[in-house]
Every structure is written in structure tokens, then in C-alpha cells.
Amino acid sequence: MVRRAEVRPLYRVPPEVITMNSVIALSTRDIRFVRVRLVYPADADKSEGRLSITSQAGMCLIGKKAGDRLRRNVLIEKIIYQPEANDDFHL
Predict the structure, then answer these.
(1) How far apart are CA 53 and CA 2, in angstroms?
(2) Are 33 and 77 in contact (CB under 8 A)?
């Protein structure tokens, strides 16, 4: 369920916000860094690091920023790639 959303035109999405097809570096206590891409369910593949937006973790990531925590032990280290920041509106 969406509790809070801010709708913006694609060209006005801040580059520090996780959106669809963003590539994110996460860190945990057990694994230093994990790199994931937030994708639609049909493109999800855990072994390739493609995380579905409909997964619990995927829903937690959308709209977050670097420095935010998903859980106490999972930190969003960096947004490596965000389509809107790179004018990739065709994805």
C-alpha cells in the first residue's frame, strides 16, 4: 500500500531518490556491499542482482535516498545510477 507519494514529472525527480531501474549499493553487517537494480517483476533475477519492485525490499527502496536505512542492519550506501538523472527516460 502506498501511504505517501509525491508525483513529479520525470525531468524533476531529484537525482538522490531511488526510482525504477536505479542501481543501488547496499551494505549490511554480514556482507560489506551488495549491488542491486530495482526492476519490474518480469525482469527480476536475484542471482543477477535485479530486485523486483513488488518484493518487500523493493517496496522499501523506492523513494529512499543514500544514507537511509531499510532495517537496522541494511544501509543504502550510494545510488550508483538513476535513469532520470541520466536522461534515460526510455527505460
Answers:
(1) 13
(2) yes
